[in-house]
Task: structure prediction
Amino acid sequence: MTLDRQPLFEHSGIPGVTVGSSATVSSPSQRAAVTNRSVSSQQNRVVLRVAEERCHLCRRCLAQRVCKARALMRIDDDEAPVIDVHRCQGCRVCALECPYDAIADA
Result:
């Protein structure tokens, strides 16, 4: 009886880099490709903010309830929520859910 063995890791599309392994990048061009990919994803990042003048301080903030990343946080009940940019995934679901359009791009 023979067993078919399948590779444990998938290739990422960059020669020498395998997803799921401790990748070693050997040539300078490969290092540049990996670095450029991470920099471009940071530049395209969506940054949202809550406009305090538009926020109605809803008791049950709908935008906060739909945020799967839990990026909207309210510290005090009498203050508008703030968006944690490190948690925010940029999906803009919170902005669509807010009935007062208090969430927009920064």
In short: Residues 28-43 form the longest helix (16 residues). The two ends are 62 Å apart (CA to CA).
